[in-house]
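anyone seen this seq b4? input:
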Amino acid sequence: MPEPPIIPDEREGDLLGFELRHNPDLAVFLAGNQFMAAPHILKAFAAERPDLARIYCETLPPGLELRQILAGSAVFRGETLTVRPDFYAPVSQKGVDAVVQAGLADRDACKPYVHNRIVLLVPAGNLKHITGPADLAREGVRVSQPDAAIEDIGIHIRAMYEKAGGPALAARILEDKVRAGETYVTTVHHRETPQRLLDGEADVGPVWATEAAHARARGLALEMVDPGPELDMHEVVAYMACPLRGGGNPGGGLAFARFLRSATAREIYSRFGFIPA
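predicted toks r here
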């Protein structure tokens, strides 16, 4: 069995209902970039299913959550978390394949419920004059980049780089500039990248369009650079709703998966810029 992953100490904000971790009615693992919508989704679901109102929810990178699922636990601030999710929402086929191969989910039961697209986030003023993915390869441009091993967006970002400039562009940003210290690889991208940009530690970071919209809504000194429909990967990005076996309430996981495709959930996700499936 894999080693339990370590959840960074400062990520308590991504462990919703933490006080319920020992005996929740329902445990769900959502892709972390849904953090702005998650409280509204959970509240609406609990209103419809008061018998499942005590919900433990993680909004961490899908790859980190997957490691936790396969290991059966994770470590947070020295405590071993043994909660087993009833629902998992990866943003790549890799995550679906992993839980299916582990015997924890049925492939036919894992269905898309929202879509998203990739944009570039820069500090206000865009002093490095970033216009598209190719600019991230320039010397002197500091990139905040998710780790594709734990962040599903990282898989789609590599594909965007390759679409924009072939394998050479991807290698330049993800290998050469990592070694040179000009590409910083994050652990919890949706939290770290906006902060690094605000702190002057990065010049650009590829993010989900919903994260850029959330930053603007908060009035943060950040701007979005749209790479356009040819490169934003909107045609392939799908968030998958996977009810799981092995948790405390697999029936609840199935109910939650159905809810995410309901009119109520679609309205909530649309409000935050997601594109309902």
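The chain has a mean pLDDT of 96. Residues 25 and 183 are 42 Å apart (CA to CA). kinda curious what u guys think
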